[in-house]
Write a structure and sequence with these properties.
The protein is 34% helix and 22% strand. With 318 residues, the protein is an alpha/beta fold. The radius of gyration is 18 Å and the shape is globular.
Length: 318
Amino acid sequence: STSHIYGKIQLAEVNMTAKNKKIECGSTVAIVNVAAPEPAEFPDRISEGIRKLENIGLRVVQARHLMESRGLFSASPESIAQEINELWSRDDVDAIICAGGGIAANALLPYLDYDLFRKNPKALIGASNPTILLNAVAKRSGITTYHGPSVIWDFGDRDQPQFTIDNFVNFFLRERSDLGEVPEFLVEGEAHGRSFGGNLSSLLLLAGTEYFPHHDGGILIWEDIGESADRIYAKLVQLDEMGVLQSLCGMIVGELANCEPKAGIDCREVVLDVCSKYKYPIGWGLPFGHTPRKTVVPIGATIALSSKSRRLSLSELD
């Protein structure tokens, strides 16, 4: 179809962009807070998160407004965005990692310097609501971003599973192209396309804006938390009515934390129902999302999905 031809053109354009600055032992990561003033509320977790990042060989710098609290944000959206721009422009900062979440992160989008990000590609890492930034930056700057562990809720957790630390180290510091095992497939098959997604509720906040990701020929990877099956159904129908689901070449569903059945219908049945008219592979249960065991998931990278190997991998390391 025309949409899939268009999708391949988009993939080619994205793959021509420069690779992100490499993260290695001794690299410096900057911790930023994109919205909710969670660092001010959980300073012990910030300290623990910094300790863990330093333990794996990284240097850490903190955004100026990181520990502040001003209503819904740690600072004004414009100030937070300007600080992200400043940290990104620094030669001594190799990557940006989000402290936590905040549903109002979309307020930052008009103030980010997407041209700077495109010309000076670095890893942007976050989970949950930072899905908003991950997809917007990947779309507007053409670089790969990463849905991965956050400082507060992952590295700052004293009971953080070794799985999450090992996955982070293997992906970023050892540049392993294998992203991990997809435990189950609702629909078998092979897929090769550009990844987008993250937290489904956050992704849909970009609907109808210039920041919603390219999706033709893509692989949608998503998770959510605390949404009943009927609400998941409604969100997937919204994506279908936007023309997203029909344009995909594959889908991967992560862990759906506290997403309870409704009227005897669970989320697995919902996915199969809404996607029944499409024949692409659908992976199920990838450990990523609002779960202690987090797989790093690239956003805006070319990935390969296979029900034979039950593996998810990068086609080439961005």
